[in-house]
Amino acid sequence: MAAKDVRRCVSCRRLAPRQEFWRVVRLADSRRVVWDQGDRRAMGRAAYVCPCLPCVAEAQKKRRLERALKTPVPATLWPDLWAQVQGQVGDSPVCNPN
Ligand SMILES: [Zn+2]
Prior knowledge:
A three-stranded antiparallel sheet has the order 4-3-5. Strands 1-2 form a two-stranded antiparallel sheet. The protein is built from three helices and five strands.
């Protein structure tokens, strides 16, 4: 894995290949913040979070994505993340919030 493909979780600071994270992007053109679900062509400033409950909770509670992206994250983004993370309970990737 090339070093340039390593990313850091905004919550637990874990380093891992970017495919292991969820990618949230502030689009370069509209400045809208979206969850990039596989479309790597979504261009803009990106932040990464582990696809696990502790890290999503931390990111929301402590506004980690807002800080990383330097812009407000729409409230409508969170239900999408939560729905996905709750569907993974018992099957989620390793996650180390501390
Ligand atoms: Zn994490």
